[in-house]
C-alpha cells in the first residue's frame, strides 16, 4: 500500500533543472519508482545521474510501461493505458519499504503529463505531493533569452495535432506548440510569423533555431530529421508569434 506518493518534476534534460526541494524529496523518499530502460537510453541515463547527484539512497523499484492498444479509439486507448500503468505501479510496489515513494516526472507534472491522472487510479489513493519542475517552455524561453508573453498578451499552449486540425487558434498572440512530430508550423500562413524552436532543451545536445518561418522552416525540418536519426528519439518545442 502506498501512503505517500511524491511526484518530483525533474526538468527537461539537465540535472541542474532539479530544484532544491526536488533534491530534498529524492533524498527523503523511501523508494523510487523508475521506468525500465526503453529506446531512450539517454533519458534513463539522465534519471540515474539525477538520483546520484541528489545523493538518493532509496531503493529503486523498476516497472515496465505497457504497450498502448492501437485498436482502441484514442480516449479509450489512453484510459486503458493509464489503468494498466497504475496496476503495474501497485504490483511493483507490493514489497516496497515503508515511507514515501517518489516518481521522477519529466519537466513539470502539470504540463502534458498524466502522472497525476494515473496516481488517482491507485486504490487506496495515496496522499499526493507535487514538486514543481522546469518545463520545456521555460527551458525554451530561457535558451533563446526571450519573454514568454508580449506586454499584457495571452499565451496559448497547444499540440501539433491540434494545430494541424484547427489551425491558428482564434485570438492567439503567442502560441507554444508541444508534442509535434510533424513540424506543423509549416502548415500556417507564413506572413509575419516568427518561430523560436528548440530540441533536447537543457541537455548538452540542445539545438536552437529562430527566425521568420519562411526563412527557417526547411532548416528546422531537416535538422530535426537528422537529429532524430542520430539519437533515435527527439523532443522539441517551439514558440510562434506574428510580428508586425
Ligand atoms: C509529454 S510532454 C511532457 C512535458 C513536460 N511535462 C514539461 O513540463 O515540459 C512531452 C513534450 O514536451 C516537450 N519537451 C519535453 N522535453 C523537452 C526538451 N528537452 N526539449 C524540447 N522539448 C521538450 C516536447 O514538446 C515533447 O513532445
TrEMBL record:
Catalytic activity: precorrin-5 + S-adenosyl-L-methionine + H2O = precorrin-6A + acetate + S-adenosyl-L-homocysteine + 2 H(+)
Keyword annotations of the record: Cobalamin biosynthesis, Methyltransferase, S-adenosyl-L-methionine, Transferase
Recorded metabolic or biological pathway in which this protein acts: Cofactor biosynthesis; adenosylcobalamin biosynthesis
Keyword S-adenosyl-L-methionine in annotation: yes
Ranges where the Tetrapyrrole methylase domain occurs: 5-216
InterPro entries recorded: 4pyrrol_Mease, 4pyrrol_Methylase_sf, 4pyrrole_Mease_sub1, 4pyrrole_Mease_sub2, CobF
Residues spanning the membrane: none
Family annotation (SUPFAM superfamilies): Tetrapyrrole methylase (SSF53790)
Molecular function GO terms recorded: precorrin-6A synthase (deacetylating) activity
One of the GO biological process terms: cobalamin biosynthetic process
Annotated EC: 2.1.1.152
The keyword Repressor appears for this protein: no
Gene3D superfamilies in alphabetical order: Cobalt-precorrin-4 Transmethylase, Domain 1, Methyltransferase, Cobalt-precorrin-4 Transmethylase, Domain 2
Top enzyme class: transferase
PANTHER family xref list: COBALT-PRECORRIN-2 C(20)-METHYLTRANSFERASE (PTHR43467), PRECORRIN-6A SYNTHASE [DEACETYLATING] (PTHR43467:SF1)
NCBIfam families named in the record: CobF
Protein name: Precorrin-6A synthase [deacetylating]
Organism expressing this protein natively: Citreimonas salinaria
Lineage: Bacteria, Pseudomonadati, Pseudomonadota, Alphaproteobacteria, Rhodobacterales
Amino acid at each position: 500500500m502506498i501512503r505517500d506518493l511524491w511526484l518530483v518534476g525533474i526538468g527537461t534534460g539537465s540535472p541542474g533543472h532539479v530544484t532544491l526541494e526536488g533534491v530534498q524529496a529524492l533524498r527523503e523518499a523511501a523508494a523510487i519508482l523508475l521506468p525500465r530502460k526503453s529506446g531512450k537510453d539517454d533519458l534513463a541515463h539522465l534519471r540515474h545521474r539525477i538520483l546520484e547527484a541528489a545523493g538518493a539512497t532509496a531503493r529503486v523499484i523498476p516497472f515496465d510501461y505497457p504497450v498502448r492498444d492501437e485498436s482502441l479509439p484514442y480516449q479509450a486507448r489512453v484510459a486503458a493505458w493509464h489503468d494498466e500503468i497504475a496496476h503495474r505501479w501497485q504490483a511493483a510496489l507490493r514489497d516496497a519499504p515503508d515511507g514515501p515513494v517518489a516518481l521522477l516526472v519529466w519537466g513539470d507534472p502539470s504540463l502534458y503529463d498524466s502522472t497525476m491522472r494515473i496516481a488517482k487510479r491507485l486504490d487506496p489513493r495515496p496522499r499526493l505531493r507535487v514538486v514543481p519542475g522546469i518545463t520545456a517552455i521555460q527551458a525554451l524561453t530561457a535558451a533563446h533569452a526571450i519573454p514568454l508573453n508580449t506586454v499584457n498578451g495571452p499565451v496559448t499552449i497547444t499540440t501539433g495535432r491540434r494545430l494541424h486540425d484547427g489551425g491558428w487558434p482564434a485570438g492567439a498572440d503567442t502560441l507554444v506548440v508541444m508534442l509535434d512530430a510533424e513540424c506543423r508550423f509549416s502548415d500556417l500562413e507564413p506572413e509575419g510569423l516568427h518561430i523560436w524552436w528548440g530540441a533536447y532543451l537543457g541537455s548538452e545536445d540542445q539545438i536552437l533555431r529562430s527566425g521568420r518561418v519562411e526563412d527557417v522552416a526547411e532548416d528546422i525540418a531537416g535538422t530535426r530529421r537528422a537529429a532524430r536519426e542520430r539519437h533515435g528519439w527527439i523532443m522539441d518545442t517551439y514558440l510562434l508569434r506574428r510580428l508586425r
